[in-house]
Amino acid sequence: MRFARCFLAPLVTTALMGATAALADGPVCAPVSKVPLERHLRQLSLDLLGRPPTYEEYKAAQAKGEVTVEDVRALMQKEEFYSRIRAYHRALLWSNVSSSVNNNGNSRLSGAGSATDAYSLRGNSSRQLRGANGQGCDSFIPQDSCNSPRQDPHAEPTAAKTCYDTRGVPLPVSWDYDTTYYRCDRLDQNPTDATITSCELAVSKGRIPAKYLYFCDMRRQSNGTLLPHLCLPDPTKTNAAALSEEVLATDGSGRVVGFKHPNPTSSTPLTRLDRCSLELGERKDNRGFPINGAYQPQNGCIQREGYVTRPAPFWSTTGAEVRVCAIEAQTRVSNPWTMESCTTTRFNNDRSCGCGDRMERCEVADNTVNVHRLRVDAINAEPELIADSVVRRDEPYFNILTTPRSFLNGPLSELYRSPQQGLGVLSISPPADATALPVVPFAETATWKEYVRESEHSGVLTTPSFLYRFPTQRARVNQFYAAFLCKSFAPPDNARQPAAEDACNRENNLAKRCGCNYCHATIEPTGAHWGRYAERGALFLDPSHFPRFDPKCRDCALSGNTTCNNECGQYVMQAYDGDGASSLGMLKTYLYRTADEEQNIEGGPQLLVQRMMQTGELERCTVRRVWQEFLGRPMSAEEKRLYLEPLAEDFARDGHRFKALIERLVMTDAYRRID
C-alpha cells in the first residue's frame, strides 16, 4: 500500500495507517516534494542492496513510471539484500569476539610439519618441555630410532640410548647449552680452520683443553650442519657470572662436569650448573622427594626429543602425513605416572601429554591456515546467519531471539564435536549432541550447514558470539535492552546517594544497595535469565553436572579449601555476608535470588523474550531501529507521534515479518521526502 503524498495528520492516520484518531488542527507542515523516480530507485537500491541500480533497472522503472510495492519486494529477494541484512545484524549485535577471546598462544604449534621443521610447541610451553622458550625438537633424529644419528657422540653414553621411558614417554635424544646462561663460541673460527668439524678434533688440535670436552656442544646451524662450540658460563650474565669454580668428574678423568658458586649464601639464586646430558630432572613433592614421571628439563640445558611421522592434523587441506615432535605427537588423556589430566590446560606443560588425536588440543597460525582466526570468524558469523535465515524465510522476526536453529561450518563442526579443540582458549559447550551435529571438515570454512540446538538455546542470545562479546549477566542484559528495547540503564535525575556511613552502602546485593538499586533492581533479576550460562565464556551449566547445590563444594569451603581441586569454580566458596555464609556450595548464579528470579534462571532467555513480547516494546524498538537504518537518523518527536505506533501495530499484524516492516517503511512519505 502506498502512502499519501502530503503530510496531513488525518490523512496519514486514517487513510494510510488505518487509525481512527485525527488531529483537530490543520496540516502539520506544508506539502512536501517527493524525490524523482530515478532518485527514489537509487535510494532504494543503495539502502536495500548496498549498490546503485543497474542501467537495466533504471530503464525498467522508467518504463513503468513508478516504483511499486512489487518492485520493493523484488529487490528484497536478491542475495545482495540478505548480505545487507547480515551487515545490519552484525552492527546490532556487535558480533565480533576477536578482542573477547584471549589466546595466549600456549597451544599454538610452530614449524611446517616438514622434513626439517617438525611441528612443535615453541612458546611458553617450551620452557617446561625442553628447557627454554622458542625451542622445538630435533628434526634430524627420529624418536623411534634415536641412536642414529647422534648429535654429541663425544659426551653421550656409549651404550644404546633409551628413546622412551618404560611407560612410553619420549626422552631426549640431543641437547644444547642454553645461551641464557652460557657463552658458546664456534671452534672452527678465530682463526678459521674448516677441518675442525667435531669436538674430538677441537681437542686434538688444541682449540680447547681436554677437560672441557663435556662442555663442547655440537650446535646445528641454519643449513642443518653441526659445528663444535665451547660453552662456558657467561661472565656477562648476572645469573651465571659467579659460577667460577670448576667441578671435576669423580672418575679421575680430570674432565669438568660442572661449575659452582664458590661462596653461596641462602639468597644466592643459582649455585651450580652441571654438564648437559640426556637425563631429565623430576619435579619434587612438598617433602623434597622426586615424583616419578613429573619430568622437567635440566637447568641450563635445552633437551630435545626427536620427531615422528603422524597422519594429517585436523586443519590439513591436503591430507598428507606430517612430521611432529615426539612430545606433541602423543595422545594420552593422563600422565601415565602421576595420573594428572592431559585434557585440561596443563597438557602443554606435561611431557607425557601431547596434542591428542589429530593434534586436536593444538592449533597453527601460518601462511596457509590460522586455526584461531577461522574459529573466531565462524563464531562471529553464526548470529548473522540465524538472523538471515529468519528474514529469508519470512518468519516472525523475533524468532532470531528464540529459535533453536543454527548453522555451523568446518571450524565450528570440529570445535563442537571434539571437546579437546580450543582447550585453554575457548570455553564453549557443544550446542547439541555430537551425533546431531553436521560433519564438516575443518578446511570447509565456506560450507554452512543447518542443525537444531538443544532446548536451552534461544536464538542469537545463547550463541558463543553473544555470550563472549557480553561476558557477564549484566552486560548481556544491557545489550538486550539497548538492541531490542531501545533502552539504557541510568539512575533518575533526582537520584540521591546515601551518606557514607549508611549501612546500606555495605549491602553486597546490588539490587538492594542504595544508589545502585536504581538500575540493578532491574538488571539483576533480568540477568538471571542467563544464569545457566557461565560468565566470560559460552559454557552451559547443565543442571546434571552443575546442580543448584553441591555438598562437596560446601564441605571444601567450610574446610578452607576454596579451590576444591578446581572443581568448584562456579560455586560460592567464600562468604562476605550472612547470605553468602548460608549459600556456601551453591551455584553462584543463585546467590541473592528470590523465588521469582530462580524461575528466570530455569526459563532462560526464552522466558525473557516471551515476557517482552507482551509489552509491545520489542515491536516499537524494531521500528525505531529500522527507521534509523534506512533514513539515516532517529525518529523525531513528531515522526514518533505519526509513525511509531501505526508501524509497530502493522508490524505485529503482519506476523512480525521483517521484510513487511521494511516494505511499509520505504513507502512512507518520510522515506520519499526531499529534505
Explained architecture:
- The structure is a single chain.
- This protein is α+β, with helices and mostly antiparallel strands.
- 29% of the residues lie in helices and 11% in strands.
- It has 19 helices and 17 strands.
- The chain has helices at residues 9-16, 37-49, 55-64, 69-75, 79-93, 125-130, 199-204, 371-392, 410-417, 464-469, 473-484, 517-527, 551-558, 578-581, 595-612, 617-631, 637-653, 658-666, 669-672; strands spanning 108-110, 120-121, 174-177, 182-186, 216-220, 226-233, 245-248, 256-260, 272-274, 281-284, 290-296, 301-304, 307-310, 322-325, 363-364, 405-408, 449-452.
- A three-stranded mixed sheet has the order 2-1-15, with no helix packed on it.
- It is elongated, with a radius of gyration of 34 Å.
- The model is unreliable at 1-28 (pLDDT under 50).
Topology of this structure?
Elements (H helix, E strand, L loop, with lengths): L8 H8 L20 H13 L5 H10 L4 H7 L3 H15 L14 E3 L9 E2 L3 H6 L43 E4 L4 E5 L12 H6 L11 E5 L5 E8 L11 E4 L7 E5 L11 E3 L6 E4 L5 E7 L4 E4 L2 E4 L11 E4 L37 E2 L6 H22 L12 E4 L1 H8 L31 E4 L11 H6 L3 H12 L32 H11 L23 H8 L19 H4 L13 H18 L4 H15 L5 H17 L4 H9 L2 H4 L3
Parallel strand pairs: 1-15
Antiparallel strand pairs: 1-2, 3-12, 4-6, 5-6, 7-8, 8-9, 10-11, 13-14, 16-17
Distance between the ends: 23 Å
Task: Give me the Rg, rounded.
Answer: 34 Å
Strand content: 5-15%
Low-confidence stretches: 1-28
- Rounded average pLDDT: 92
The SS-based structural class is: alpha+beta
Shape verdict: elongated
Q: Tell me the helix content.
A: 25-40%
Query: Tally of extended strands?
Result: 17
